[in-house]
Amino acid sequence: MVDPQPDIVPYLAAAAEKSMRITHIFETHVQADHLSGARRLGEATGAPVLYHASAPVTFRHGDLENGEVHDLGNVNIEVLHTPGHTPDSVSLLVTDHTRSGEPWFVLTGDTLFSGGVGRPDLLGAGHERRLAEQLYESLRGRLLTLPDHIEVFPAHFGGAACGKGLSGKPGSTIGFERRFNPALQFVARDEFVDFVLADLPPQPAVFAENRRRNLAGE
Q: Considering the entire predicted model, what is its pTM?
């Protein structure tokens, strides 16, 4: 399970319907737009809740490191540390061995969207430019090194407040975003940083409270 919402009943029902177990609960970052259901789902299933090692969460969890691979049988998941939206952001590169030995798609959380990228201002004044620079390195040094055919499934699409200019399409490919995502047209780091910091929509007031509660696992 990746980035579970507070209502965990549908996840438990879906697993039961297919006679499957939930064995891993990945959080792509400490969420701000919603309260996480990860801790509750972990308690219900016994599955570990997994964050990148840099996430300052204060409840029991497992740490993820860049490059580690989780074997789920026919599927494996490689962790890519992609800081920028938050310092602990990760993307999850998925290979389905029933189809191919090569990766098929990537879950990009709030790092790369269809038509946009994650906002780098969640930690407040004074952190934005550093996080925007990290976002540039995550995109150029990690996600855009993937083949163009890799499918992209972000955590949000049009209407979400976690980025600007998001498309209403819930998925994309690395190749399409490379060619048409406005933020990815800037090769120079400073130009990219200036672009992603300009004209950000106001951060909803609930974001800070949600992040505080998610850090504590409330």
A: 0.92
